[in-house]
Design brief:
- Two copies of one chain form a homodimer.
- By secondary structure, chain A is mostly helical.
- The first copy, chain A, has a domain at 4-136: Hypothetical protein af1432, CATH 1.10.3210.10.
- Chain A is 69% helix and 0% strand.
- Chain A has helices spanning 4-14, 17-36, 41-50, 59-68, 75-79, 85-95, 102-110, 120-131, 140-147, 151-169, 175-192.
- The interface between A and B is medium-sized, with 19 and 19 residues.
């Protein structure tokens, strides 16, 4: 497996500058959250560094990567191609960077829309992706505060943001984000019991 | 099968007064929409009359009905019991009122959250349920106008309303409404081609 710095140097060449800066922001935020919630900082930082490794800087690189790393693209992804970078990122992490840790691979796969029963790492990466320092939108301060209150609550609020954005744009919503949100709500209910 | 008036008289006894009034509103609206969109007024009015026949006026009647008319209740419904009245309504329409028309039964089943590939009748009932005359909420006039523009567009807007409401309440969202909304968006895209 490549070292953290080797992957970082490689991504600097393969991602757009703003994407690379965002990636470093996600690393920073995921380190904070992993320490706060008692999760392995090493795993969190690797997952964060790699979360957008499938979002290559130009369409030609994307097309080449999709041919090189066969991934399952479902009908929803075919209509919503911005989602392809998550399974593609997982495949690149596995094949190019030699990542074997299934927790890290799963967090990369789940970072765009979440999934039923997200792991702690999935949640840390999902939230960090949305609240990292370079992000700016209306209720970002509220989400950043919530991230230090409860991972499920923060996930739900981040997902609500995404769903409202998709509604505003008249775009389709991935049913996975709904399943993910529902399980987070169920988790909260179970904690209250 | 019972006649329209027999069912109406029976529902007057079995539903709360406001629910019965709402039901008659849905019948009126569905008649307008069915004429506007060239669909059988008879089928629309029966489906509208029966859409909430599973929402009985007290908990004891609901419990008795669930025991009398076995229905499949999935785990999502168990957590969100207000959804039970749709499959229960379908069962009551079938067994008590002798409805055999599968289009009507499907429209009753789908009226709360929609489904993939909704039929024209499903959409008419889904929309009528939300915009009938006794309903009052912020953007109701917009939805009423949209209902006379395009059934898919109106369904999407009604679903958006529902999803925003569920988000505001911090409640779970049924993945079926998302699947339904996505297929309506796909229908719109196909019409534009």
């Amino acid at each position: 497996m490549w070292t953290f710095d080797e992957i970082k140097d490689d991504l600097k060449k393969r991602l757009k500058e703003t994407r690379f800066k965002h990636t470093l922001g996600v690393v920073d935020t995921s380190l904070k959250l992993s320490k706060y919630y008692g999760y392995s900082s090493e795993k969190a930082s690797f997952a964060a560094l790699l979360h957008d490794c499938g979002k290559l800087k130009d369409q030609e690189m994307m097309d080449n990567a999709v041919n090189k790393y066969p991934i399952v693209i479902d009908s929803f992804m075919l209509e919503n191609k911005q989602l392809i970078h998550a399974p593609l990122g997982e495949a690149i992490a596995r094949k190019r960077y030699g990542v074997l840790d299934e927790d890290i691979l799963q967090a990369i796969r789940n970072h765009t829309v979440g999934n039923i029963n997200m792991s702690k790492l999935d949640k840390i990466i999902y939230i960090s992706d949305i609240i990292e320092p370079s992000r700016t939108f209306d209720n970002i301060d509220y989400l950043r505060k919530l991230a230090l209150k409860d991972l499920d609550e923060a996930c739900i609020a981040c997902m609500d943001n995404t769903i409202r954005f998709l509604i505003m744009k008249h775009w389709m919503i991935d049913p996975n984000v709904i399943e993910a949100r529902n399980t987070c709500i169920q988790n909260l209910k179970n904690k209250e019991k």
